[in-house]
Each structure stands twice: as C-alpha cells, then as structure tokens.
Write a structure and sequence with these properties.
724 residues; alpha/beta; 19 helices; 20% strand; binds beta-D-glucopyranose
Amino acid sequence: MSAAIALALSLCVVAPADTRPWLDTKASPDARASSWVKAMTREEKLRLVRGYVAITKRPKEALVGAGYVRGVPRLGIPELFETDASLGVANQADTRKGDVATALPAALATAASFDVQAAYDAGVMIGSEARAKGFNVMLAGGVNLTREPRNGRNFEYLGEDPWLAGKLGGATIRGIQSNAIVSTVKHFALNAQETGRMVLSARIDEAALRESDLFAFQIAIEDGRPGSVMCAYNRVNGAYACENELLLTQVLKNDWKYPGWVMSDWVALHGTMEAVVAGLDQESGMEFDTEIHWGAPLVAALERGEVKEAQIDVMVHRILRSIIAVGLIEKPVAAPSDRIDYAAHAQVALRVAEEGAVLLKNQADLLPLGPDVKRLVLIGGHADVGVLSGGGSSQVRAASGTPIQIPMFPGAYFCVTYHGSSPLAALQARLPGTVITYDDGSDAKRAAKAAKEADVAIVFATKWAVEGTDARDLHLEDGQDALIEAVAKHNRRTVVVLETGNPVVMPWLAKVRAVLEVWYPGERGGDAIARLLLGEVNPSGHLPITFPADEKQLPRPVLDGYAAAVKAGPAGAPDKEEAFEVKYVEGADVGYRWYAAKKARPLFPFGFGLSYTRFTLEGVKSDGARVELDVVNTGKRAGTAVPQIYATPPGGQARLVGFARVELAPNQRRHVIVDIDRRLLARYDTAAHGWRVSAGAYTFTAARDATDEGIKTRVNLQGELLPP
Ligand code: BGC
C-alpha cells in the first residue's frame, strides 16, 4: 500500500462519521432514529407529525398525490410523497394530468386467487411504479373484512376471512416495501361500511374484534411489516379510531409491539389531545380538517406542558424508524420518471385477473367455448371497449387507456371509469373464424333477438362500487336482471360475466348455463376474460366472500344509516350527519361463520369456485401443528386446485386455518402440507389477556369451500394460553 493511500484511508477512518450516526447502516433502525431525533429542533419535529393534502392546492415541492410531509434537509430527512393505493398508483380524475399506471384488478380478485405469491408480485410491481413516479409512501394494504356485502369499498379489500385477508395483505405490503418505500395497512379498524363512515360507532366486544378484524391486521403486520398503520374514520365502541387508545396503544403498540407510525386517514381527526393520548403519530391531509389540530393547538399544548416534548419525540422516532427500516435512506426516491416497463407489468395484472376469476356455474360444461361456436354475441357492460373499475381514492388511470370516464354526479371528483381492455377485441383476436357481434344491452328486446341468432350469448353485467357510498341492495342495477332473463329466454346457451365489487343476487341463475365472476378485472381484464372463456386458462379463483341468497340472511338486513344518507344526497356533507351505532351482532362470526351459525344456505359459499377439470382430496391427517393431504386431478385438463383447511374447535365454529394453490396435470397427485397457526384454534380471552386454546378434540376438514363436507381428521390438543 502506498503511503498516500494509507494516509487517505486513515483520514477516512478518523473522519467524523459519528456526527451523522443516523447514516450508520450497521446500527439498528431504532438507534439511527434516536440519533436523528436528538439532532432535531422542536420545529423540525413538528414538521413530521403533520401532512399536507397534495391534490390541487398543495405545497409547491409536493407531487400531486394523496399527501405530502415536509422533510428536514439540514439533517437529510426526506420528504414523504404519499400516493394511493392498493390497486396501483392512483390518479383519480386525472389530477396528475396524463399520468397512467398499471391498473391491477380489484383486491377481491387477489383474494380470490388465494395466491400469496401473486399478491407479493403485484405488490412488488405497484411499489416499483410508485417509486419510479417519485412516491415513497403507498397508502395500500386495505384489509378491512367484508362484514357488509353492500360496502362500497369491499373491492379494495381482501374478503371476509381474517387469515386470508391477513396473509394476502401482508404479502402485498411486503412486495411494495421491497422497493425500499413505505406501505400502510388500513383502515384500522372496523371501517366496514361507507355509509356514515365519519360518524358511526361500530359496536363489538373486544374478544370478537381481536379474533376477526384485528386479527387480519395482526397477520398483515407480522407478515408485511408495514411502515405505517392508517387509522380509520369511524368510531369503535364510542371512540374515533384515530383517537382510540385501546386500538392504537393497547393493542397495536403494546400487545403487538408495532414499531412503526400511525397516520390518520384524511379528515379522521376531531381534536388535538384525544389523538395524542390515544397514540396517533401523524395528522394526515391536515388542511382538510376543520382546523389543523396538530398545528397551533398542538404547539399551544406543548407550551402549556399538556403534551411533553418526549411524546413528540416518540412520534417522530416511529416515523423515522420506519423509513430507515424499509431502506429509504440508502435508496432515496429520485425525481419522477416514466421509465416503467408497462408491457411487463401488464402481465402481472393479467395473472391476478386470471387467477382471481371465479367460475360459479358451468352447466353441461358449456365453457370453455369450443370451435363449434360460429356466431357469438356479447351484450352490455361496454364489453366493446373495456372493463369496469371500482371508484374512489384508489382509482388508477390505466396504462391501457380510459375509454369511459363519467363523474358519479355533476361536478363529482370520483368517476365511473372503464379501463381500456376490450373483451370483444380479445375474443375476436382469438376466434378469427367466428362471427362476433356486440349489442350494448340498452334494449332488452333487441339484445334478446341478437341472442336468438347466436350460438352462444355472453351478457356482461356490471355493478359499480365507489368509496364513500354503499349499494342500496345486492341486485344488479339498471334493468340488468331483466336483460339477462330476456337473453336467456331466447338462447339456452347464455353465459353471464359479472364485473362487480361485491356479491350480487342472481334471480336468473337457473336460466343461464354459466356464470363467471371476474370482479373488476384490471387493465388486462378483456384478455383475461377471453382466455378464461376459451380455456386458454383454467379458472382457479375461489370466493373470498359469501354470496348471500338475499339480504334477509345478513346480520344486518337493513344497512344502518342508509336511509339518512340517501336523504342527504350523494354530495351530502359527512360532518353534518347524525351519529349512529352499528351493532356487529355477528361478533367474530364474520361471513361464512355467520351463515353456518344461522344454518342459512347462501347462494354461493365462501371458498367456492369451479374449474374445467375435477379434483379430489384424499388422506387427510394432522398432528395439530400441520395438516397433510393429497390432491388429485381426476379430470382431463391441467388445472389449479385450492384445497382449504377448516378447523372446528371443541364446541365451536369452523374457520379457515390454511389453504394452498396446487397446480396439477391430468391424473397428477400432489402431497400438500399446511402449517397451522395456533391462534387460529384459540378464542381470545380478555381476562387472561391472550389466546386461549382449549383442551380437547379438534376437527380438521380439508374441503373445497366453507360448506363442503370435505374429508376430516380429529386430533386431541392440550390447552394453552398464547400471548396477545
Ligand atoms: C381514504 C384513504 C385514502 C386517503 C387519501 C381517504 O378518503 O379513506 O383510504 O388513502 O383518503 O387519499
């Protein structure tokens, strides 16, 4: 080594690296965050605990997105650029002029895939686009359980089962954060309906809450380690979710030892001290609030000594700790670029659409359509130009185009939006020898006549769902039930493709031969539908939510607050609404467990989904820690089975404790092993403050859906108490 190099090296060693210990990658995120907090002034700390709205009116440094938090350039603390959400980088109403992104299918499709890897890959993809566009916080990770099948946001969530929602939510978050950006998990907790979301109080007992909605969050947090948790609008047992000490401090921070930060939803704060005491760490979208609660009032509270600076330090520590832990400091986001491989990313969206589509009926194997179909008519649903997407803050402007965009009411920000991906074009490209026509379905008589002249008729039935509003009921709207009836009457070979963000009832079910639920299938939806209908892809999706026979089967046949919301109109001011309570009488028995408890037969059960081949489940056994079985493809086509494991504790209700996706060639057999998380066998014991597994005989059922008899094995387990 030359003297010059030796001198240079020794200079490096003695260089004062310790003046910026937050850059020491060998130190823990907590140690680095602490050193940063120590170096900050009070004003700098306060900058971090409140975020701006970043839509039309915004600080000039902010990117147009959901929110913006100032950084501390003096110390190298980055600004936070926040974007919605779970289905891709959102751009509602084209606020970021002309900026497109890859539009995933509804999260319900991801849930229906029962595919943890696909959820992860989708997260990696949307997170990489967020980063490329200059965002470093993605407001994704919606895991609210479907307790209300009319909820306008179910399409953003992952169904009714906590294990399924938690596993897939965790995988999505992990994928997003693999890009060294933060993902949230939201909306903590019990934001189960949009009607009255700003005022309602969700009433439920603590044990039931911990076993259901909170458990989905717990699993998503364990698996995904999101940098932030977004608390919800609604109240839970009286206290607003963002001012709820039980939720934010006792459960999240104490019991689960969550190290990240809690940000409020936009306009979810109602005061200053309540949220400080409860454990909130950041006020989001502060200018939307009636006053900036964590602005002057927080400073005044600090001056009066009601809030200690040490409390602000903890909030700031949590924020910094998360951005360090995800790797954002070592890999800062660059200026926005559009260097994104949209063609490759579209394949990710296509896969989710294909894996998430659920074949609900296929009488006499009408599907897949064969070469005998010479005349095909497609009816309704704008199937000539695209596929429907769900509306609200999660709205992506698809890279594949936006053939239809209509404000939900004059002047509304949220729009009914179709992604460019025409089922008609996709089918025409694949069936050059078939005459394929399109009828818009606006005239049932004309459509029926067109159906009569075709070998097969495919009706595209759509139902839009949007944040902020719930559906009136479970019916298709705008005469679509009558349209399907009319078409089916004139053509026995009628297929219904459903593009919905929720279950619908199907008064016409007996009269049609096939039903394919594709949810909102994303920017390659047209191709996915064509490939599924033609058998290029074998359907493998399974319902992540129960389809009820009618509203009377629901725990709340009438949607609380709906009548008042209708009276207020679509543009009604949420803060003027009267508070009300929603009693979650079903407790932890969400979805299929409620139907089982009531012995009610739904239209289609949770977990249900057909394939173009057949599978059998054989030889189930368990030692309580894992369940093993064989899955066999007994049909003639390759396909993917989704065996589900349900556990029934002594004297209790069955619940999903595991699942797998198993690809099988014809006649192939595969051995499947599913590990069981003990908490799924337990009840939450509030007095003992933990999960109590009772001693006794447990039944494990390997089944095709929640109502399938399946094959069973019993095992005796010792009692135990697990930590919360
Ligand atoms: C929604 C959140 C969203 C936020 C920012 C709110 O209205 O509830 O899910 O992340 O807006 O756009």
